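ASSEMBLY PREDICTION REQUEST
Request ID: AP-0331
Submitted by: J.K., bench scientist
Number of chains: two
Total residues: 591
Priority: normal
Notes: Please return the full assembly, not individual chains.
Input sequences:
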Amino acid sequence: MGTPGGKNVREGFLIMNATKKDAVLQLMDVKKIFAQGTVDEVTALNGVSLTVYDQDFISIIGSNGAGKSTLLNIVAGVFPPERGGRVIINGDDVTNLEEFKHATYAGRVWQQPGVGTAGNLTLEENLSLALLRGKRRGIRAAINKQRRQLFYEALTPLGLCLEDRLTALAGTLSGGQRQALSLVMATISKPAILLLDEHTATLDPKTGQTVLSLTEMIVERERMTTIMVTHNMEMALKYGNRLVMMHQGKIVVDMDEEEKRSLAVNDLVTAFEQASGEQFKDDSILLSHR
Amino acid sequence: MDVLLSVLSISCYEGLIFGLLTIGVYLTFRVLSFPDLSVDATFPLGGAIAAVLIVRGVNPLVATIAAFFAGSCAGTVTGLLNTKLRITALLSGILMMVGVYSVNLRIMSGANVPLLREVNSFDLVGRLLGLKGMALSITFAAIVALVFFILLHRFLRTEIGLALRASGDNEQMIRGLGSDTDKNVLLGCAISNGLVALAGALVAQNQGFCDVGMGIGMIVMALAAVIIGEALFHPRRISSVLLACFAGTFAYRLFITIALRLGMPAGDLKMITSLLVIVALGVPYMKKRLRHEWVPPAARM
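STATUS: Completed
Returned structure:
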């Protein structure tokens, strides 16, 4: 952003250092053990460290139980990591912050369309709730002319005609429309990081594709730093500038844009097998490769 | 003709006064999805606080406002049991219902407090407006109902009010958007039980006594009113929801008043009310069964 052109090698070197992107999210040795000390004990995360830079779009892939969702839950503050782990967002230590205080740091789109929107409230009421993400809520009217205009403008680019249905109940929308609304709600007040939790998994392929395109559009326009969890290898390869693969609570592959550009799904399977030292056997991931 | 007029005016007064109670129950049951049964005890709590204060010589209007706040405090405790101790909403309400019964006996130092010889809020307002009897009862009830209608209609559309409504609709979402749902539940329970206690205080003053048993079945009555209101009006906007609460209560009281006039023993009232709610809740399910529609198993918690 607005870096002056370098004049000589020395200055160019300095500028390179200066433009090195800032870390938005830092996970340090994050562990999560559920039902500790019982026979049901599960280690969901086993020492994950990850640095996410400004405007990164990371796809996280991994089989069931790899710890992807637990990772998102920890970034969103649903529960804290085990002692010793740290979560830092925009320089603030948010490790033990309560979930509702995480709102300014993380916006989220869930897998089920019903979770991200309130079905018995209208579209504009949903958006108004999202507009005040992490802010103090007062006794002003939740919706006014100015805000309604803002919502209209936020929904128009989706191309789903939702802007004409501001007073309809969110529960009357289709799954894809609700996910699109969810996306707008997650980004309208610009949280530090956008978390997408398999947000197209329950949609039919065509609608899923539409929601993905909208995701890409919004992420680019708002310059959001994004983490997207997915089950679909192709999707992980296609979207984002970084690819992270998880296995048994650990990050086993972390590729940047250049590494992943030349990759195909088969290479990803090979990479997984090399990194984890195991045969790749999750059919669901292979089968979802169309 | 006279009989009809008297039946209508009684139902009108009761529709307005008990309408406050219905709105209180609507706030917890429907808006917060928090089935709060403590209503049966906070209703006489309001009556008890107002009665005892009036007997001690406190201005009856001040005593009535005090009753509102006493109800709010009880509601807050119900909310705290649920949010801080994680006791289910249903059980929190039942625990408060049982516990506050004893508190009411303590407040009144007995099972009832007569108010017949005291100057009450209705008398005060009557002197001010130059009204008496049923006309006064209806006018005063209408003023109180209107005040709370306007306040709630505004409040539920504010930023806090909207967050409160969202807490009952999609708790996970609204927490993710940075609203403390625990606080919202406390606020909702406080307002709800404040309204219930206010209704109790006004009813006690109008009937001339407060009795510890006057709250029995109030929750079922309010539920019946909510259901009737919803069935009649299918309300969606906040204003129509609030109006439906009053209208539902009016319809319910009208039904009861007519039944009493026709010679139904007063003791059968609670049974009739329960049957009404059972029919209202059960019939839609039976209809679906007849159409061979699939219906999920009953919720138990």
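REVIEWER COMMENTS: The first strand of chain A starts at residue 23 and ends at 34.
SIGN-OFF: pending second reviewer
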